[in-house]
Structures are given as C-alpha cells and as structure tokens.
Fold each of these.
Amino acid sequence: MSHYRPLSERTHDFKPVETLPGEEELRLELVRCQDCGIPFCHASGCPLQNAVPEVNAAALDGRWGTALRRLLATSPFPEFTARLCPALCEGSCVQGLHDLPVPCRRVELAVIEHGFARQWVRPRPPKQRRGPTVAVIGSGPAGLAAAWRLNQGGARVTVYERDARPGGFLRYGIPDFKLDKEILDRRIRLLEQEGILFECGVDAGTDFSGRLLRQRHGVLVLAVGARQKRDLPVPGRSLSGILFATDYLAAQNRVVSGEQAALPEEFSARRKRVIVIGGGDTGSDCVGTAWRQGAISVLQLEIMPKPLERRGPDNPWPQWPRVLRTSSSHEEGGERRWNVMTTAFSADPDRPDRVSAACCAPVAWKTDQGRLQPVVADDSGFVLQTDLVLLAMGFTGIRADPLLEYLGMRPDASGRLPRDAGGRLPEADAYACGDAALGPSLVVRAISDGLRVAERIIEDIF
C-alpha cells in the first residue's frame, strides 16, 4: 500500500508527499503490534524512549487522548519526528525479525494529528517563572527542544536565530514536500504562546556582542548546529553551477514560503542535467526538488558501495538495518550509482566559467589498517555531462563563529564543541546541545539531546 500521493500529482508541486494513514491501515498494523512479546522499539530503538507499545495499544482501542498523552510525555514535537525520523524504533521492531516492521512512525503521525484536529494540543505556559533568563542560540530541533523544556521549568527563554524565521534546518534544510512549513509554524506559535521569545534575523555575537549577550542572560545554550559543509576540493570546483545542496534547498524553500519572490537562475534545475553527489537524505531531497523544478535528468552519485537489499550477517536484529533505502524522491525518477568518485569538473568551451561535465572514476574498497579506503583503478575514468552539480556530502562540524571566539571555544578534532556529560562547556560557562556537540546526526537525536541538556540546566541552576 502506497503512503504517497500519486506521481502524476506530487512532482508538480511542493505540497507534502506523504498522506495521513487511514483507519483500516492503522487497525491492521496496530493489531500486529500487539502480537509482540518483549518490545525493543522504545528502549533499544527510540532515542526519546517513546512508550511505543503503550501509545499503539491506546490508539488501537480508540483512546486517542490517552495515546497522545503518552506520546507527549517523552516527545515534545511528534509532528516533526513523525515526518522526518528514519524510525529507529522500526529497526528494532520484533515483527521485523520475519516480516515488515510495524510502521510506528505513521502511527505517531496519526496520534499527533488527531490531537491537533481535536484541539487537544494547546499552549501550556508554566504557572510561575524563576531563575535567571536563558538565551538559546539557534532554533533548530535541539534549540527548540531545549527552549521548550527550560520554559516548562519556569525559565524566561529567548531564542536567537540568524535567519529571518525560526526553525533552523527544519525550515531551510528540508523541502516542503517532506515538512510543510505550516506544521513548523503551528508549533512555533504554540511555543510563543507558552512564553518563549524568538528574535530572528539576529546573529548573536555579530549583530550584538557576546558581552551584551552575557549581560542580558544568565545562562547560554549553544544549539548552533554542525553547519560546516563538506566540500569537494578537486580541479574545477570553482566553476559556476556547482552548489552546496543545503544552499540549493534553502533557496527553494524561501520561494515556497514567500520569503523570496523568485528563484535565481543559479538555483534552478529547469531544463538542466543535474548531478547530485552524496547518497544520503539531503541528496535524496535534492533529487525530488530538481524534478519539481523541471530538470531534464537527475543522477545521484555515491562513493560508498551499494547497500544490501536485506540485513547482512554482521547486521543482526535489533541493530539498525544497514540496507538499501528508496525514498519517495527516488521513486520519482532518475538514476543512482554507487562506488563512484568525482575527481574533477570541466568547463563548457563556450562558457569557460561554467561547469559542463564531471570527471569520475569507479572505486573499489579495501581494508587498510582496519579502515576501509577507496582505491581508484588506473585508466578507468569516465565523464558525465552536467549543467548543475549539487554537493550533498554532509557536514564536518561547527562553523567558525564570533560568539564562539568570544567564549574561547574551539571545536575538537571531530568538529564538535567539547562538553562534559551533562552538556556543560566548563571553559565557556555555557551549555551546548544537538549537532554542535554530537556531530551531524538525526532530528530525533538532536531533540533528545536538547531535552537532556535542558534537564541538566534545571538541576544545576533552577
């Protein structure tokens, strides 16, 4: 059963691809969930430790209010994770031993949207305020989670965001066909009604000094993300027509939301041959976006080997299954190739400043001192014609930032802010959460870490 809108419809707009689960689909899957003996989904799989079996049992009985309360007891933003999480819980589902796992993520989606439809999800401001004011720098999933928990604890919280609107990567890094920004704005309105202040278009540390930030607030929480993009330093990289994937996605998102009137030609795939370098979720998002913009062709390249169709012997249940995944964007067309390294870019003879081809080579993988290393075969290169190249190779860590310089913070060898077990940055007298401290990771892990660090702040200070 397809959970997506028809191809003939969805590739012509940026509206959500995924449909809400129907009553019959839910009933059949929830019955399967109740056949489980000892569940692993909540503790082994879910970073938030959602009580998946209890939520599902309540939903099966039609006790949607109970299901919602149990879900919100551990997850502040189920509407985000239900749309964006790769569903680690499903990787640990007992049904997945011999059959398809129970689609816990879609059950979560049904529960939270039932709650919003019935107006059960309402602002719940704290009854009293206490302690020093808190500044949360960054409004991505970790920053929002930390701000929510601190506000619930009675703190006066201000969230600073350098972009024009709050949400961070949720707003600018994820296409609307995966996360409609009205879903994000709906939550932001609730947070504001609960007493959280958002100051957007403000680059803390640049637009006003770190010293002034210290004077305004007694506690600093750095949720600045790991936004240093992984580049591809090969000959021809400086040619126009080669973009970072997140810049490309952000430009389209700004047009969809009306923040920007029109898409600059540089960021349009219309009538272009597109190559996406990187096989992860961001690369997949670029594939779907390029088709919607009117690309002629889309090719996604990945340097790593093609994953197995099923779990390998070194990847037993309940570990996360390292298997081939086909997203809704992949279903929309294009080609994927694995074991391909891009070695250079070449220019169009008629436009010497613009990319016209990617020079590539197949690679084999060999173990060297316990680590896999790519090996390029001699004289095996090939050339791919292209008009637009999107680099979706992930992130290497935090970016240089005047606020971090003021606080005397330097990233470690992994590009992360070194903190103690509770999230505190002892040298800076501040706290860090999310990707800035964990390294690039999942939305659900960022939310979980934001909650955990906020709990530590409440214990330490409030």
Amino acid sequence: MSAPLTSSIDAPIAPRPLPARTFWGRALRHRSFVLGGVLSLLVVASATLSLVWTPWSPYEIDIASRLRPPSAAHWLGTDTFGRDIVSLLLAGARSTILVGIIAVSIGLTFGVCLGLIASAKRGWTEEIIMRFSDFTFAFPAVLSAIMLAAVAGPGMLTSIIAIGIFQIPTLTRLTRGSANAIWAREYVLAARASGKGAFRITIEHVLPNILSILIVQATTQFALAILAEAALSYLGLGTQPPQPSWGRMLNDAQTMLFQSPMLAVYPGAAIAIAVLGLNLLGDGLRDLLDPRLARER
C-alpha cells in the first residue's frame, strides 16, 4: 500500500535567516566614522611615534639653521630657532594627546558621578549639584588657567586642571538629563518595586543605558580639549618651553607671518586635523550607537 501523497504547498517553509550586521560591519560602511577614525589614528600614531623616534631632536636649537626651507634633511623646514618642524609636530602631538586624555578623564569622572547622584537623589541634592555646575560653567578654561597660573604658575598641569574643571558642568548636565529619562522607564520602576536601591539601579540599569551617549560626548569634549590646550599654550599659560606644543608653535610663528607664513600653517593644520577627526568620529559613533539610526543603515 503506497504512502499518501502530500502537497508541497502545505509544508511550512522555514524563513532564511538574514546575515547579522555587526557593529564593525556597519562602522566600515559609515563614511564619517571611517574618515574620523583614520584622522584620529593619524594623530595618535604621530604622538606614539614621537616617543621612540623623531627626525631631529625637538629640543635642540640651531640658530645657524633657522628658517631653512623644506629639504631632504628637514622635510618641512626649520623654525626661528633652527628646530625641525616635523619633529616639533610629532612631539607636539604627544603633549596635546596627553593633556586631552587627562582633562577629559577628569571631566568624565566628576561630571558623570555628579550627574548620576543628582538624578538618583533628586530634591536638594540635585539642586545643589546643578547650581554648583552653573557656577563652575561661569569660569571658562582660559579664565580658570589665568587664576591657577597666578597661584601655581603656568604649565601643562595648569592647563590640564583648567580644561578638566571646565568640562565637568557640561558632562554633569548631560549625564543628569540622560539619566532622568532612564529613571522614568518601566523596567526601572519595576526594579524599584522589587526592592532595589538607588545605587544598584544606577549601576545596573541607568549607567549602561547612557554609556553610548557618554562615549559620543567624550569624543566631542576631547576635540574641545585640544582647542583649549592650543589656546592656553598660545597665550603662554599651558605647555611651557622647551616642551613642544602646537599652540606654542603658533605663538612663535606669529612674528614671522610675512617672512615664513608656513610656520603657522603647519601647527594650524595639525590642530584642524585632530579636531576634525574627533568630531567626525563622534558623529559616526552617534549614528552607530543610536538604535533608531542603526536600523536605518
């Protein structure tokens, strides 16, 4: 006896799984992220290379070789003190990266902590923290550096503290606003109903959900820190000689704008590349880490 025939139409057809689009797969197709990453890596690679090698010593002064044009010996020429421009740019990248990393770390540490406390406690605690942020925001990095330089003297430490303090209120406000939105979610209300305390909810639910926002903002703050460090060094309040700095290179070049204008172009271009790279990287991270924007790509 033959088996009954079954129609192939009645048989369920299993859906073919779509290939998973990983983060790096989407990132490599994002032009802003790729270009920003390349420019940022170029700056970081320059700073790292300066730790082990520079064409010439960035600290050696050779007046006999001052204002040399680009050549095989000096690829971008020399400055008013006879120092190699390429060596100064590489060593200046190291100073810029160091100041930016430490200053942003200070801003993130205090800003995120204060913002999370303000969002979790509310009431007078939130009011005191936010008014303190308003007070701190009234002192820009340049003004803070002037006050610190009057007490402790100018230097890299002065610029790090001034830039770090100026970043705290911005990150405090961002953290508090983002955390308030998370505290109103249903899963947080359920966690509170189950008996979890404010500290545990903050660590387990609030902070992980605002981490992507903080990462994106950190790249923007890093770019602002680079600009602030260059401005403070240009004014003589930041990195002091003989330590190279892009801001100090601009300061040294201002008296030679008509004789050798490229002395100002090189450090200005380096600052522009670093800031542009970080801003593009931040825009790319925002698009990639935002679930709504990620689904569109």
